Every structure is written in C-alpha cells, then in structure tokens.
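User: structure tokens for this one?
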Amino acid sequence: MRVLLISPNIEMLPDPVAPLGLAFLSSALKSCGQEVCCLDLCFEEDVEQALESAISRFAPQAIGLSLRNIDNVAYPESVSYLPFFKKVIERCRRFSSSPIFLGGSGFTLMPERILSFLEADGGIAGEGEEAFPKVLSGMLDSSFPRIEGFISRESKELSGPSWVQNLDSLSSPDWTCMDLKAYFAKGGMGNLQTKRGCPFSCIYCTYPLIEGTAVRLRSPRRVADEAEALLHQGVRNIFIVDNIFNFPESHARAVCEAFIERGLSLQWSCYANPAFFSRSLAKVMKQAGCTGVEFGTDSGSPPVLARLGKNFTPEDIRRGSLYAREAGLEVCHSLSLGAPGDTDETLEETFRLMEEIAPTAVIAMVGLRIFPGTGLARQAEAEGLLSPDTDFLDPVFYIAPAVRDRLVDIVRHRSSLSPNWIFPGLSINVSLRLQSKLRKFGVKGPLWEHMKILRGRTISTGEPHA
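Assistant:
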C-alpha cells in the first residue's frame, strides 16, 4: 500500500524540530512492506503546491499526519496550530479521496476532540509503529478493525492508547524521508531518544498520557548506533528528547558509556531531574559529549514544588546545579510562574534561588497550559477556573489567583533585572530574527547555552540582548 506521511509542524521557535516520531513510523511501515513517501512541510514556502505535488506524484492510498503539538503552550502570546492543520487536511481532500489518519503526541492528548475538529477519518492515540500497520492491513478488508489506540470518526470508540513494549524491536528512525541538513542548519540539532514513559506525578505533565507511566528503555548500543548514524549525516549536535534523561541513572550512565566506547565526537544536551543528578553522572555525561542540561525546576518554593507534585526540593536544585557546573556543563532552569500556590512571596523565593545558583539561562513560562486528564485540570475545575464542558482545544492556562492580575507585569519587571532569562510567552530574548542571526553565525545546540555570547553583545541582532 502507498502511504503518504505528512509532518505539518511548521513552528520555528525556539527551533524547528525534526519529526522523530514520523521517522520512526516511516521505518516501521517500510519494515512491514508498505511503500512510504514523506512530506515535511516545515520549510515549504508554498504548502498547497507541496501537497498537490506529493499527492499527484505518489497517488497515496492512505495519508497520515503526525501532530507533534497543538499549540505553543505559551501565555499570553498563545498560538493554536489546529486551524493550520485543518487547512492541510482540507487541501489533502481536494487532491485525494484516500482516508486520512492522525497521530503524534499532540493528537494523543485529545484524540476524540481533535479527530472531530479536523474531520479526519481516524487516528492513533499513543505510539503508531505497531498500531498503524494493523490499521492499514484492515483497510484491505474494507474495514477499520478494533485495534489498541485506534479511533475512527464513525465509531468514536477508543481502546488504548497504544504503546510499544519492546522498543528495541523497532527499526531505527528513517531519516532519509526528510531534509536533516536543513534542520541542522536552521535548528542546530538532531534528535535522539533513549527511552519512553514517565513514572512521575507532576500535576500538569502530559508525558504519562502520551507515553504511559512505565519506563521502557532502549538498548544503549542501539542509541549509540543511531547517534553515530546522525554523525555520518553531518549532524554533530543532538538533543536527547527523553522527558528526563537521567532517570533511571543507571541507564543514563550506560548510554554515556556507550558513546564514550564508540568514540563519538558529538555534542548533546538533555532534560534532567535534579533529584537524580549525581556528581559522578555529571562527570560521565561531560566525558560523553554533553554540553548542557535543562532542569525542569518550575519553582524555588518548597510548598509550590509540593503542590506541583515534584519529587525534589530547593536543596536538590542547588546540588544538581552545582554538580553540573563542576563538570563543566551549562545549566538552564525551566520555571512555571503562577503555579498553584504561587504568591508574591513564593515567586520571590524562586527569583532568589535563581540569583543564588546563577544558571546560564532561565526559561520562564507565564502560567501553566491545562490539558485534560491531568491533575492540574482537575484542580482548576475544583477551583471553579474551568467549566466541566471545557473542550481544551483553545489554549487555557492556570495562573495562581493570588498573582493572576499582575503576573505579566511582574515578569516584565524581572526581565529587566535578569538578562539571562527567556520568556517565550512575551517574546523576550526569543524571536525568529534572533534565532536566524545566531544560526547564520554557526551557533549550534540549544540557543540558551549561548546566552553568554548575547550578553557580551558579540552579535548584533536588533533584538533585546540577553
């Protein structure tokens, strides 16, 4: 069967991200004998022409769209991607009568709602490498079978989501179906995954909904193989997309040792949890090519951390930052300002902690995007901030009542005092113009790692300097 896979994700900030999920899916379909064509819309100047050309040339018998995100999760400058996705589907309908299926992490968050809004024929919640080939096989019998994770517009019955239990059974990502060189030039990084699943209980987090709560590990040897393959394609900087790289620590250490044994000359960064960030792990990460870690810190206030369901304390944050710095790693802390329990006093605790540990950069979000099925959604409804019939397709945010009316002003003031802080929801120290300038000057890896360059005004961008 001829299957056209489309990545309609065109967001360029903070960087364009190569569609790893679609690359895994393409590889899985090819392993099952399907004929696959991939269309990545990220760098297309004329989307309609690109769709018409791909469909007329390939004549697909099925079309799949991978939805990575449904909005930019930023406040107050919120942007929904769903209207664009709907236009893509409408144009596919114009050029083809083949069924259209949805998938990806964004779709998994609200499969029934998104399927209805986009008017696709079906979709897979969870992971599609095993489920989608079964759906395509069922099409040959002129029926949509009951498959774990699959939902159709007719039945609207979802059994799932679908998760691959043995990740090492999957073929390596098929990077031949997209322009990796463009992603490396314009985004500065490639993608790598060492595990799936999140066992933690942060009340706002969607990873347990997308990947499940059971941690499924990939073989360190397989991870090193894929890192080496990226190197051979000219990609020297990599972001490890795991929700948390350093848990379990033994697996993170094994991945690092595999990189070292292979002699891989790559640079990489990752998300990390300060509770599991030991001094010895920081050292081996540095030896393996790690350049920086981004801690999902959220707050510097003990009661706010507790209400968020975090498993660490401010002392863990201090210790993790210290170990990273000792090892020679750049450090970033991601914050959620206006979280449950936040007041002027707790925000000041957070600001003081960041001043104390002096990270390379701070990425601060105003409020928390609320998604259905999370503890935050239940709390917001209990507080009367959401109605029971909220559909969540339009971005909705939790901002603590005690600071709601003046949080944006507090953030703007903080940005004037903290030049190494990035505020995506207010376009402070993050913009397409700034990103483009840095990439043209050959800056690779996460842009936050290079805040020192900007503070030194080495590059003239016309943007507020970090």
